[in-house]
Amino acid sequence: MQRVIVGSSSEIEALLDELGEPSGNCSRAVQNAGVQLSDNEELFESLVEANRKKVMASLTPAQLDTIRNDEEDLEFCPSDSVIADIRFAQLLNADREIQVGDTVYKYVKNGVAFTPAKTASELKDVESLVSDIKATDQSGSTTLKVSENVSFSPMDYRHMEYVTDRDDNFDEATGGGSPSSGSSQKEEKENLTLRFTSFGAQLSNGEVIPKSDIREVDFTDGGDGNWLHKFWTDRWGKNIVALIRFQKRRQLNLNFYHQNYKIYSNTGTKLKMQKKVCGIWWNIKAETMVHGWETVTIKYSLPDPIPPISIDSSFGKDPTISTMHTFPFDKKNRMLIKIPFINYNFTTKDLYKAFTMAAKTAFDKASSWAKGEAGNADNISLLCEQDKYTYVIHGPYSKCVYNKRSVESKFDSRWFPGDWEFTFSFASKFKLVRIKIPRNDGIEIYRGSVYGAIKYKGKWLAARIYKDKDK
After folding, report:
1. Residues 6+ apart with CB under 8 A from 382
2. Does 110 map to a domain?
3. By the 8 A CB rule, do 395 and 355 touch?
4. Going by C-beta distance under 8 Å and a sequence separation of 6 or more, which residues neighbour residue 130?
5. Is residue 344 part of a domain?
6. Do 218 and 468 touch, CB atoms closer than 8 A?
7. How distant, in Å, are the alpha carbons of 56, 248, 320 from that of 78?
8. Residue 2 has pLDDT above 60, yes or no
C-alpha cells in the first residue's frame, strides 16, 4: 500500500497543523494536502479511514438506519488500538506505516519497526517477529535487530481502558439524581473553570460537584481499585482511557496519553461525551464541558544547570532571572521566572495551591522590570533546579465549551535543546544573555493534574487524574 513520505519530523508537525482534526474522508484530505506518496500499486488509505470503514462494515442495514435516525446526532469517534494521537494516525496508512527520508516505520502494539525503503516489504510480517518482545524503555533509544534489514524499538503503545459503572438513579430521559448544588435554570455562556476542594469541585459560577460524582485517580499507585487498578506506569508511552458512566449507555470519556513515535511524540488529553448505539460508542453533544490541567511540572535531565553563568555583582544582588517561554497548552508566550528549588513545595497533594503560592512569591520578589513585563502572577511559569535536573512548572489552564461532543488539549513539552535568551533584571535595569543548551538526556511528567467535567441533562460528573509524588 502507498505510504506518506516526509523529509523530517518538522515536516510531520507542519502537515498535522495543516490537516487539523480528522473529519470527512481522511485519505482524501491527506492526498489533497499535496503530500508525496510511495509508488506502491495499492492506493493510500489513511489508518483513520480504514478503521472507520471496518466499524461501518460491521453494521447491518437496520443498524445503520438506527444510527442515522438517532435523536442525538451521533458522531463517529475515530480511535486506534495502537496510535493514541488520531491526528498523527491520519498520516499513517492502513498498515500503520510512514516514511521519513529513506526509512520506513511500521507501528505495532509493542513498538516500532523500521527499515530502509528498498527493503520495506520485509515489514509485512514483522509483527509476528516481535510479538514476544517486552517494552521496557519508552525513550525509543533501545534498538534491536530482528532481521538482516529490520530494526525494532520496543515501546508500549497498547490501548488501556477502565470503566466505572454507576448504579444511581440516573434517568435516561431527564437526567440523573438531583441537580448539582447552586445550578441555575438560565444557561449562561461563561468561560467556566473548575477548582477541586476538600468537598469535591466548584465551578467558577458557584455550581458544586460533590465528591460522590467525581473519580480521583493517583496514577502512581493506581488510585481507586474499582476504577483504575493501575492508571499509568512510571514510563511514558501509555494510552489510557477512563470511563465514568452516567448509566449503561451514556458515559464521560477522559483520555490521557503520551506516546513517543520515534519520529514524532505528543502528549494530549481529550474529554468526550458518548452514547452507545448498536454496540458502538458514538460522540454526542453535552450541555457543558470543562476540561483542563490544574498544573504540570516537566522534569528535564540536563548536562548543565540553567543558566550556567553568573552576572557581575555590580549589576545588582539576586537579580530576577527569566525568559519568555511558550505556554504548552495554547502556544502563547509567558514569562518563566527562575526560583530556588527549596521555594517550591513538591510534596503537597494540593498541586494548585503549591503553584499559586510559589508564583505569587516569585512575582512579589521579582524586579520592577519583570513585573512590568509579566503583568501579574497569573501570567508566569516557574523554573527551578536541583543537581542535574531542571523543573519547568506551568500553572492552570482550562477550556469550557457548550453544546459540543468533545474538547481536547495538547501539551507541548518540547523545549530543549537550543539557543535561549535569558534576562537578568534588577529594579528597572535588565541585561540579555544568550545561552546554548546542547541537549537534554531525559524528560518526564514529574507532577501534574488533568481533569474533565461534563454536564449532561442537568447532571454533572467529573474525573481527575493526578501525579503528586515520585514514581
Report:
1. 336, 337, 338, 339, 344, 355, 358, 359, 362, 392, 393
2. yes
3. yes
4. 108, 110, 111, 113, 146, 152, 154
5. yes
6. yes
7. 12, 21, 47
8. yes
C-alpha cell, 241: 482511557
pTM of the complete model beyond 0.70: yes
Q: Is the peptide bond before 340 cis (omega within 30 degrees of 0)?
A: no
Whether a cis peptide bond, with omega within 30° of 0, leads into 308 is: no
The C-alpha cell at 281 is 460508542
Of 315, 319, 391, 318, the residue nearest 358 (C-alpha) = 391
- How many folded domains does the chain comprise? 2
pLDDT at site 314: 56
Which cell is 298 given?
A: 516537566
Q: Which residue has the cell 516505520?
A: 105
**Which H/E stretch holds residue 202?**
strand 200-203
Name the residue range of residue 392's domain: 296-398+412-448
- pLDDT tens string 149-194: 999 988 776 555 545 555 444 455 555 543 444 444 444 578 899 9
Domain boundary among 110, 128, 154: 154
Q: How far is residue 218's CA from residue 467's CA, in Å, rounded to a whole number?
A: 6
Most distant CA atoms of the chain, gap in Å:
81
3-class DSSP state of 256: strand
End-to-end CA distance of the chain: give it in Å, rounded: 42
CB 38 within 8 Å of CB 2: yes
